[in-house]
Amino acid sequence: MRRPTPAAALAAAVLALAIGSLAACSGPRIIPAPAEPIPVPTPVPTPTPTPVVQMPTGDWRDWAVTPGDWVYRQDGRGSIALFGQPGLDADVTLRCDRSAGQIFLSRKMAVAPAGPLALTVRASTMLRQLSMQPVGGGQPYIAAALDPRDPLLDAMGFSRGRFILEGGGMQPLVIPAWPETLRVIEDCRK
Q1: What is the mean pLDDT of residues 85-90?
Q2: What 3 state SS string does 79-125 have?
Q3: Of the candidates 119, 92, 104, 100, which has an alpha carbon nearest to the alpha carbon of residue 150?
Q4: What is the DSSP string of 24-39?
Q5: Cα gap 159→154, rounded to integer Å
Q6: Coil, helix or strand for 170?
Q7: How far is the C-alpha of 38 from the C-alpha of 29, rounded, in Å?
Q8: Are the C-beta atoms of 84 and 93 separated by less than 8 Å?
């Protein structure tokens, strides 16, 4: 048997490849469908549910007191009583501003209100609605200015064990009637 020459071997290899390619092309040709981009789901914002204020039931004088303590301080403007939990922003403040000749009652809010809010103050001997204004600052608060001789202040200070701040779409605050409130009131009456 004769050995094929290198040129003949090369020609045979090329011929074999050509026949294989033609055989592959002779069948049905399947063209893959172009890859469609996978749609990325667009997040649908879910509306933030409005918190439902759970009003305590029964007589308000039996409602559980809001956790916290009163702290009294004096500063260059006068004096201030702050109520809340230690290490957090005060839930309620009562400030004597001597230069303004007024006492400011403030309540912390979850979000800054767009305008004035009605806040009801309930004490053993008095019930009154105040128009509270938003105040600036990092933590949103609403506040009302009161004359130092306003009978509401005495009603809060001498209320039997507690007074209530409710309204503004917030959970009612049941505030203990401790001496710190009366100290601020007396500081402004001097």
Answers
A1: 94
A2: EEEEEECCCCCCCEEEEEECCCCEEEEEEECCCCCCCCEEEEEECCC
A3: 104
A4: HHHS---PPPPPPPPP
A5: 8
A6: strand
A7: 26
A8: no
pLDDT of 51 above 90: no
Amino acid (1-letter code) at residue 100: A
Distances (CA, A) of 100 to 77, 95, 148: 9, 11, 11
CA 89 vs. chain centroid, Å, equals: 14
What pTM value is reported for the model?
Answer: 0.71
46 pLDDT more than 80? no
19: its two tokens? 């026949």
Alpha carbon distance, N-terminus to C-terminus of the chain: 131
**Mean pLDDT of all residues belonging to the chain:** 85
Q: Round to whole Å and give the CA distance between 117 and 144.
A: 10
- The one-letter code for the residue type at 180 is E
Taking phi over 0 as left and psi of -120 to 50 as alpha, with beta for the rest, 61 belongs to: alpha
- Token digits of residue 52: 């439902």
- Give the tokens for residue 95: 């400030």
For residue 87, what are its two tokens? 């290490």
Q: Phi and psi of 121, rounded to 5°?
A: -105, 125
Token pair 């090329």 in the structure block, residue = 14
